[in-house]
Design brief:
By secondary structure, this protein is of the alpha+beta class. The protein has helices spanning 6-10, 34-39, 62-70, 97-107, 113-117, 120-136, 143-160, 167-177, 182-208, 214-219, 226-257, 266-272, 277-287, 322-325, 360-377; strands at 13-15, 45-50, 55-59, 75-76, 141-142, 298-300, 304-305, 311-312, 317-320, 382-383, 405-407.
Length: 409
């Protein structure tokens, strides 16, 4: 018998928690209260039923989630691909152990903290140029379409060597690829051949004429199967811009709508205390992560007992919830309080272990740069609509605002 009660096993909770009657996930700005209730009951492991009908165990406590993310031999991503909402076969998020390392190592040295730090000036220049365009068009303006998305998309696009003329198309492909609703997955299946064919052509061009970019590095990785060569840039482009852009939008929304210390808004506080921005970004990442419905599921490969005492059996599906773990009071004092000075802040929004987000350092530099620039150049920034009217992503693997109308004059 696992840690879940007999009644919970008989009546599993619908997951994700914010889905509507049609099974479309509609997450809001704040994490669902069910996470906190489950985490503090029993061992913090609850049986859930996913929108596709799969039963799974939701794991919510920090030490359990960290243990689960770290051990690929017992908790396999590859063995759970058949129940994924998004097709991740052959990608970094769908491989384990040596296969995962072989793909990751192709580009990993270009995304380390020191490597990304060398790009900081370029990212700053790109952000400044994009902000000049936004301001030049006047307010009100959509911060997502006019600043956050082009900044994130052009950053990873330049690193890869993706032609500028094709980036809008990649944005459209990406929005479809990360859809989790039934209708969205049908659209994704229709677009994937076009995306794969396009990338196969680009990789062939790089084999014939290499350049100093990530596509050339990937094209030269002849030891990898062709499908993994194609899916690596897909993961980098889509994951690289979607998460960063959504984080910029979400964090700015939070900063403009929440007070902090003696300031009316946390945004105003950071405008007066720019030295606090790196810590603020880390804390906002803990409280307002942009993953729409927990970490990807794993399949248990042998019977195991988690640190909480919860017992899992071979063959079961488990979902590690970094959103619940990030509020675990056993690790984070007063976890619902936003504290820009929180230290240490070892949240799990970027994952943990071998599957930690390969682009986490790049995302951090992008978001810190964006918020530092906005608070310095536009200290009077404000929402141009009511927070309740901000349109949010639905049926998508990444949460956040679809649009963020703002004004500054």
């Amino acid at each position: 018998m696992t840690s879940t009660s007999r009644s919970a096993a008989a009546c599993p909770i619908a997951h994700p928690f914010d889905q509507d009657a049609a099974g479309v996930n509609r997450p809001g700005l704040y994490k669902n209260e069910k996470y906190h209730t489950i985490r503090e009951e029993g061992t913090g492991v609850a049986e859930v039923v996913r929108a596709n009908g799969t039963r799974a165990k939701l794991v919510t406590r920090y030490d359990d989630v960290r243990h689960l993310l770290r051990d690929q031999t017992v908790f396999s991503r590859r063995a759970a691909l058949d129940i994924d909402d998004v097709d991740l076969e052959g990608t970094l998020l769908g491989l384990d152990l040596d296969e995962h390392a072989a793909v990751r190592d192709v580009v990993g040295d270009r995304l380390t903290r020191p490597a990304v730090e060398r790009l900081r000036d370029q990212i700053t220049e790109r952000a400044e140029a994009q902000l000049r365009i936004l301001v030049g068009r006047g307010d009100p303006a959509d911060l997502m379409d006019g600043f956050a998305i082009p900044l994130a998309l052009d950053t990873i696009g330049d690193m890869l060597g993706l032609p500028q003329r094709d980036r809008v198309q990649f944005r459209q492909w990406g929005e479809v690829f990360l859809a989790t609703s039934t209708a969205g997955r049908a659209d994704a299946a229709a677009s994937e051949p076009a995306m794969a064919g396009y990338l196969a052509g680009l990789l062939q061009q790089r084999r014939q004429a290499p350049a100093d970019d990530l596509l050339s590095r990937i094209a030269g990785a002849s030891h990898l199967p062709p499908d993994r060569l194609i899916k690596l840039p897909i993961a980098l482009v889509i994951g690289g811009w979607e998460t960063s852009a959504s984080s910029i939008g979400t964090f700015v929304e939070v900063l403009l709508t929440h007070p902090y210390q003696d300031h009316e808004t946390a945004y105003g506080y950071l405008a007066d205390h720019p030295e606090a921005i790196p810590g603020a970004v880390s804390e906002l990442g803990r409280v307002f992560s942009t993953a729409a419905a927990d970490t990807m599921p794993r399949r248990v490969m042998r019977d195991v007992t988690l640190p909480s005492g919860a017992r899992l059996r071979a063959g079961e599906v488990v979902i590690p919830s970094h959103d619940a773990a990030n509020f675990d009071p056993r690790v984070f004092e007063d976890p619902h309080r936003i504290d820009f000075g929180r230290s240490p802040n070892r949240h799990l929004s970027f994952g943990h272990g071998a599957h930690h987000c390969i682009g986490r350092h790049l995302a951090n530099v992008e978001v810190v740069t964006a918020i530092a620039l906005l608070t310095r150049k536009l200290p009077a920034l404000r929402l141009a609509i009511s927070p309740a009217d901000i349109p949010r992503k639905t049926g998508h693997a990444i949460s956040g605002p679809m649009e963020l109308p703002v004004a500054w004059t």
